[in-house]
Design brief:
Elements lengths: L2 H4 L6 H11 L8 H28 L7 H10 L6 H29 L3 H20 L1
Helix pairs in contact: 3-4, 4-5
């Protein structure tokens, strides 16, 4: 892509600075220009991976890019040494999501109320909130 296509795209500078400060020794710092160059490289990398992922999804006749498409794109682009780490990260995310869902289900069961009762209670809270707002 041309620079004019990407000039509106950026990454949160505070996040980039936090990552840099976490991985670099304390006595090393980035100039503003170097940090901007790094951000530009990151944006281009993301765009390349996204484009390759999209191409793979289209080959699979899919309209949604999945994790598998991204991992295959990373592999195709020559970053296969990152694939095991990515797979581990994805599995960790899935495990965390399952744990959150179980906790959510547990709260529902512990409440002792039926779904209808909980919905009625929620509607009462919404109504009370609207009334406070309209005063």
């Amino acid at each position: 892509l041309l620079m004019s296509d990407t000039e509106d795209l950026s990454l949160p500078r505070a996040t980039v600075q936090k990552i840099l400060s976490e991985i670099l020794p304390n006595d090393i710092s980035f100039t503003k220009e170097a940090r901007e160059a790094l951000i530009e490289c990151c944006i281009n990398f993301i765009m390349i991976v996204a484009t390759e992922s999209n191409d793979i999804a289209e080959q699979d006749l899919k309209k949604t890019i999945s994790t598998d498409h991204v991992i295959r794109a990373i592999d195709t682009l020559g970053f296969s040494h990152y694939v095991p780490l990515l797979k581990e990260f994805v599995e960790s995310c899935r495990s965390n999501a399952k744990m959150k869902e179980k906790r959510k289900e547990s709260k529902f069961v512990k409440s002792g109320l039926t779904e209808e009762e909980l919905l009625a209670k929620q509607e009462e809270l919404f109504k009370a909130s609207r009334e406070r707002l309209n005063k």
